[in-house]
Amino acid sequence: MRGRRSQRLMSDALTYLVFIFALVFFGGPLLWVLSLSIRTQQEIFITSLRLIPEHPTFENYTEVFYTAQFSVYLANSLKLALAGSIGAMVVSAPAAYAFSRLTFRGSGGLLIGVLALQMVPPLVVVIPLYRYFDRLNLLDSYFSTSMVYIAILVPLATWMLKGFFDGIPPALDEAAMVDGCTRFGAFLRVILPLILPGLTSVFVLTAILAWGEFVVPYVLLSDPSKLPISIAILNFQGNYAANSTNVLAAGGVLAMLPAIATFVILQRFIVRALTSGAIKG
Amino acid sequence: MTPTKKAFTFRGLAGEHRPTLWLAPLLAIVTLFYLYPAFEVLRYSLTNASLLRPDYEYTLSTFAQVLGDPVLYKVIKTTAIFVIASIVLQLLLGLLIAVAVNRASKRRLPGRVFIRSLVLSAWVMPGVVIGIVWAIILNDADYGLANLLLGAVGLGTVPWLSTPTTALISVIIANVWRGTAFSMILQYAGLQSIPDELYEAAEVDGAGKLQSFFYITIPQLRPIMMINIILITISTLSTFDMILALTGGGPGQATEVLSLRTYNVIFQNYSLSEGAVLAVIMMLISLALTLAYRRLLRSEGTL
């Protein structure tokens, strides 16, 4: 009995050892950047591990937000992320419903095809589109860029949503149709509301992915006033001198915060969606 | 099923019990933004097209030129090191944290949700920002965090981003920081699906903790780990935003991976055809990975 108890204590200690490692490795860099972002320029070069500076300041934040126009870039990112994820839901939901409910020839192969699309690096897609959009005068357009965002998010959204539709018994659709609904009506008014948690998680996940999307806007957008934050901050890093790391750090915090905050608030949904999407398909 | 009026007019092809209309938006998107670009990439790889002039001719020499260029093999070697190191470290670290979080939730130890959220926060950040965060941490000077820590234990400073070897190590560290969360989530789900009875039976048979870990946990997690390896490979192969912000591919070409090389060839050297050849190579790799993934899902009986 005693041996067992001490063994349990040992294991608890090991568990916390892993936690401490994770805390330092994953939390350390974030804390350090946070600390840099509230330092004055003089305090960047201090060679000590002190996290809270002697003269904490929020000036770096006001500088990036207003002077460096991060407010504009953040808004641009939000627009693209919302357009991409809403569009992806509109395209994916009916398709996922069909894959889940209708029996038709080639459905298995088609579903694998959709999975294969998810493996295609976005760069490959964007290369010919650049030339194509150039000719159609669609470069620097939010419409065409959002369409590409949608295209990149659709495979993941379709797979995940299919998993959620599979979790609802088909008897419910049939009951609704017996009561006079069309199949589309049953889909829209009965089944979609039932998978609301699934819809939410797919929406949030695709929005977070779209928020961080880089290569599509990097290639397709060049007008500085249209750039999303992921491109703007890279340009910002290139333009700023090494002696203003504090301002760069503030920019980094502003760029990561929306994604992290959304995720932490809604993570219960997302974590479940992630695992079901990857394992069950 | 009684045919409705609608189904009759569409001759059963586009009725609402047929997949056509349901799948139409998806198929349109797929055709415009996947099939057409894939075809175009293939076509451009057989030309001498450049971004600088509109006309081009068909030729096989671009393929020969790219495949004969020693730079390609250097890039492939860098990419392979980057991918393999990422796989090994993300699997191990993800498993370690997943086991700890799983144990903590069985014992209801405090702090587990915080740790899980923290690890996942690194994953949801935009890749460019991850690159910038690590460029700050791995600053070559003595006030960078990594060098501050090394200095504190008397190890001196390391020029993290300015020698070829350390730069590649830096890129790997940043990628592991980013990707471990996904492995952790997958392995955690895998751990939770292992029935407790297996462990109880092992305990009755007198197996110790380590034995049940190696004879129950690892074999039970094997299928998920295989899927995990493929997914890590795919995400690592398409990573280039993070590298762009961290090292820009340098010093020299030390951290120029295949995706970054493809981008540079097209948008820095304006050689659309040579870039298209590289993109074809990337597509072939994706195709092979997809086939492997399908086999795994099939053998698990989930598809």
Structural account:
- The complex is a heterodimer of chains A (281) and B (303).
- Chain A has 281 residues and is mainly α.
- Chain A has 2 domains: 2-37; 59-279, MetI-like (MetI-like fold), CATH 1.10.3720.10.
- Chain A contains 12 helices and no strands.
- Chain A has helices at 2-37, 59-67, 70-101, 107-118, 122-135, 142-166, 171-178, 183-194, 196-212, 215-220, 229-239, 245-280.
- The two termini of chain A are 44 Å apart.
- Chain B is mainly α and 303 residues long.
- Chain B contains 13 helices and no strands.
- Chain B has helices at residues 5-9, 19-44, 61-67, 70-106, 112-124, 127-137, 145-152, 164-192, 196-204, 209-237, 241-246, 258-267, 272-299.
- In chain B, helix 8 packs across helix 10 (209-237).
- The longest helix of chain B has 37 residues, at 70-106.
- The two termini of chain B are 27 Å apart.
- At the A-B interface, helix 1, helix 3, helix 4, helix 5 and helix 6 of A face helix 2, helix 4, helix 5, helix 6 and helix 7 of B.
Helix and strand layout, with pairings?
The complex is a heterodimer of chains A (281) and B (303).
Chain A: H1 2-37, H2 59-67, H3 70-101, H4 107-118, H5 122-135, H6 142-166, H7 171-178, H8 183-194, H9 196-212, H10 215-220, H11 229-239, H12 245-280
Helix pairs in contact in A: 1-12, 2-12, 3-6, 3-9, 3-11, 4-6, 6-9, 6-12, 7-8, 9-12, 11-12
Chain B: H1 5-9, H2 19-44, H3 61-67, H4 70-106, H5 112-124, H6 127-137, H7 145-152, H8 164-192, H9 196-204, H10 209-237, H11 241-246, H12 258-267, H13 272-299
